[in-house]
Amino acid sequence: MATTTAHPSSKLLWRLSNHQHGVVTRPQLLAAGLSPAAIKHRVAIARLHPVGRGVYAVGRPQLSREGRWMAAALSCGDEAVLSHASATALWGIRPQHGVHPAHVSIPRGGGRRRPGVRVHRVKLTAEDVTKRDGIPVVTPARALLDQAAAVSPRRLERDINVADSLGLVNPERLRAALDGYARQPGVAPLRELLDRHTFTLTDSDLEQMFLPVTRRAGLPEPFTRRRVNGFRVDFFWPSLGLVVETDGLRYHRTPAQQARDLVREQTHKAAGLEPLRFTHWQVAYDRPWVQRTLRRVAARLANVA
């Protein structure tokens, strides 16, 4: 009794599509041994389903979200990568609900527009490009940069926090990377936001800026850089029972650092002290707020005493 066997190219085709979320390209089909006529025949009998220029879904036309992203990138050429909102969704930075056009970046001067695909012609370097789940995509840092000019500061800050919590890129590395993106549209809003949270003063500069604020708030001269309850504190007013700590890296606090900060505050509270915390940015650029806060807290503590 004769038995039928799959064409060798069919096995290769299925293996290839499994690594590409169910899609293959025409050049890959030709390399697998299928002739143009064989490709046309497989389309006719619904074993291949066109889902983009030169891109086919294998077996069935329905694709997962990742399959649609892969098809969009493959249809735009060898150098195309997922970017912008699609990239932040792929990295898990900002979920997308429902079906949205895929955002794909290609080198300037290359590629063509594709139905259902938002094509961005940008300059990308090798450091901007990677893969996630087999899909060519811009790095998390580049994705945040691409989105910075298109979203509100609040949403951008939330995206940075999520990327940080996922271990994709921390704000300090992201801020340093901006130096390599001169004149990119998203650099200015991203730098403005990051500078507020990664800005750090030296001890001497911090004292030089902070002490006049305390005087204008009506507070006496504090002790600086003293050990209180076993911890080194930035500013201490024994007469008020007030401890002020400053933090130059508000964003990137590891769980261990957060736990230590909590223990510090709990220890000061248990000793009857009032702990306050300001960022270095607030001390340097939002002194009216710092002054008002110090004045109100000092007045409350004086009344308690």
| H and E order | HEHHEEHEHEEEEHHHHHEEEHEHH
Supply the helix-strand structural class: alpha+beta
Question: What's the rounded overall pLDDT mean?
Answer: 87
Distance separating the two termini: 101 Å
Largest sheet: 4 strands, mixed
Please report the number of helical segments. 13
Shape: elongated
The Rg value, from CA coordinates, equals 28 Å
The tally of domains stands at 3
The protein's oligomeric status is single chain
Q: What are the low-pLDDT stretches, counting only 5+ consecutive residues below 50?
A: 1-6
The count of DSSP E runs of length 2 or more, i.e. the number of strands, is 12
Taken as a percent bin, the fraction of beta residues is 15-25%
Strand order of the largest sheet: 9-10-11-12
The helical percent reads 40-55%
Write a short abstract of this structure.
The chain is an alpha+beta fold. The chain is built from 13 helices and twelve strands.
What does this structure look like?
The N terminus is likely disordered. The strands form four sheets. The chain has a four-stranded mixed sheet with strand order 9-10-11-12. A three-stranded antiparallel sheet has the order 1-3-2, sandwiched between helices. It has 13 helices and twelve strands. Helices cover 46% and strands 19% of the residues. Strand 9 and strand 10 form a beta hairpin. The chain has three domains: 54 residues, no CATH class; 133 residues, no CATH class; 102 residues, 3-Layer(aba) Sandwich (Endonuclease, Chain A). It has 305 residues and is of the alpha+beta class. It starts with 7 loop residues before the first helix and ends with a helix.
